[in-house]
Amino acid sequence: MQETFDLPDLGEGLTEAEILEWRVAEGDTVTLDEEIVEVSTAKAVVVIPSPYAGIVAKLHGAAGDILEVGSPLISFTVEGDEPEPGEPPAEVEPAAAEPEVKEADTERSPNLVGYGVAEDTVDSGRRRRNAAAPAAAPSPAPSTRPLAKPPVRKLAKDLGVDLADVPPTGPGETITRDDVLAAADGPVQETQDAAPPAPAAETAPARPPTGTLEPVRGIRRSIAERMEAAGAIPAAAASHEAGVKGLLELHGELAESDDSITPFAVMLRLVISALREVPTLNGHYTDEGIRRFDQIHLGFAAATDRGLLVPVIRDADQMGIGDLNTELRRLATEARNGSIAPTDLVGSTFTVSNFGALGIDGGVPMINHPEVGILGVGRFSERARRTKKGKVRFEPTVNLTLSFDHRVADGTEAARFLLHLADRLASKGKLLGSL
Q1: What would the mean pLDDT of 159-163 be, rounded to a whole number?
Q2: Domain 2-78, second-level architecture
Q3: Would you call 282 exposed, middle or buried from its count of C-beta atoms within 10 A (0-12, 13-18, 19+)?
Q4: Does 410 participate in catalysis according to the annotation?
């Protein structure tokens, strides 16, 4: 007996997966929970274990194929089971069985491939043979009708040129486009001297560039869909250049006890404080209305070899800086090596994009639909700033850019959010009070 295993639901909102690599082949014997296939979803790379112990009977797809959730993935012959009864015996003589099959075929569904083929093939073969004999008779036709391709004939008709009067110069005495053009220009152009310029006109257009077509699949397809959704949001953006002296001082002190803590982790902890100050930005815009969340599930952009992912730190508002940093490092590592769970890539309520990690001063991030806002953080760099006393000095600064859904928030909320961050980034004392 065969058991067919369908592609399972691999996570919230996932409807399909691309087969990356089969780890078994048809005819292989597998054990329960043995890894059988590696697939890529819009969220992550997932290795699927075998739900049966038995022999692989059929793989319902090859590497590169995209299967929908619930469609057949692999079939097994379960060990110890006998073949199902009802199969026609091998000793049945074809001559005796053939009439019965043809008679039964008339009652079968017409979309079962193969039924009635023998009869149709014989009939069509007879028709082709009967039609082939007279077709060979009118052999003189090529000598009485000028040889020319359909586009050349159309050109001759448009120019009013009789092909019977056109001397052919093509292979096998075929009339070419140049022959028709030469005939249309008159006897003066019907010379060998006129022939060379014509090919130049044919080859004048530049050849198109060569390349390869890459299907939009998996994570790249998910990114494209999210960007299309983000493009429909009436978004606005606000930016502010903030001093980060306080953040760097605090980070230096924290690193003395735990050198794994990054400045970005401190920044995320401060973003949580700003979202508490401006809760309007911690929500989703839906067709039913604006959904505001009590918890803060903080997403952060992570660049991987497979595209941009947004891992989610769940209940980030309940974490201290140490736990937040640990979760940040775990999710970033798993996102880059492809082992992140699909559930760790959904459910964010606000997202932060760290441009600075790429060496970029700043940019305008696109909102992670259906969220209300996203913060872009540029790289830290020394910039000239004017003090209250009018003097100019260089200080470590960062460009902060908030993109927000203007249906939910406006410039007032954006300014409050950015100024809350800036006020605390510059002062270690205020920063500690917000952690």
Answers
A1: 83
A2: Beta Barrel (2.40)
A3: buried
A4: yes
